[in-house]
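fyi for ur records
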Amino acid sequence: MSESGPKIKSTLGRIWGSKSTSDGDPGMEEIESPARQGWLGRLKAGLGKTSTRLSDGITGLFNKSTLSEDTLDDLENVLIEADLGLDTAERIIETLGKGRYEKGIQADDVRAVLKAEVERVLEPVARALKIDDSHKPHVILVVGVNGTGKTTTIGKLAAKFHSEGKKVVLAAGDTFRAAAIDQLKIWGQRTGSNVVARDIGSDAAGLVYDALAQAQDEGADVLLLDTAGRLQNKEGLMEELAKVNRVLHKLDPSAPHDVLLVLDATTGQNALSQVDVFRERTGVTGLIMTKLDGTARGGILVAISAKHGLAVHAIGVGEGVDDLQPFDAGEFAQAIAAG
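which gave:
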């Protein structure tokens, strides 16, 4: 293991909430508050572009003494432009309009309704990613288009599981990109995880079969499978992923046990269409959204959740190993509605 391994383990134990780690980290009772405070600060900063866009729009509209239908129409446009989705925008407008015409309303009142509605939508989908110890290994297939941060996310998940004392195997199933293979090998070194990799252009399904066989032989707790993401060749990609599923079934009929779709928040409405494609063809069970710190369109997570109701396991607001965190609906709603 590289020297960075223990550091990663210590950091992840603090942030992801494990009670202790095998290298003697103290329990969460002693360290949870400062670590969580640090994460909440990064989350608020990461969603700053989104919250500022919403807050500026709200403040600009609600500087009058009364609430009008025209003002609500303008607010609906602000919410939709922030990618919150039509359904969520309509519910916010309906709540604000109930019995309030010709009555005074402040921008803070609108933000409070926005926070409550966002949290209402997200609370049912905020679910932790749990490893089933009855599976040896628990197989996690990670899918998504190129550029979403799939491989980096896999590395960060490996660090999380390693911090919990789990034995992890990584499979470099994106056999068309040398950078993805090299990146996964680096994460393997950092986290003490074995990496199964082949030459560029190798058959991805064959590699996945070998990776599962190796993970079973080693008694690994978790197998994380990277995959290609060439959505411009959608049919070819989906056929490859279907083949990956078939070979997994040969060794473990219950695998994969999770299919995680990694989404890039900066793509806005394109992220919504990616969920449509991958869910239909790969049986996506949960989502991880990255790059929320680089966009004013963080509301797209709300629109996706309202439409699909898929579990949201984690979100990312930076490149650091501790910038991918379990998803909390209340924290997200507070950050996005901040004034």
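The domain at 128-329 is CATH 3.40.50.300 (Rossmann fold). thats all i got for now
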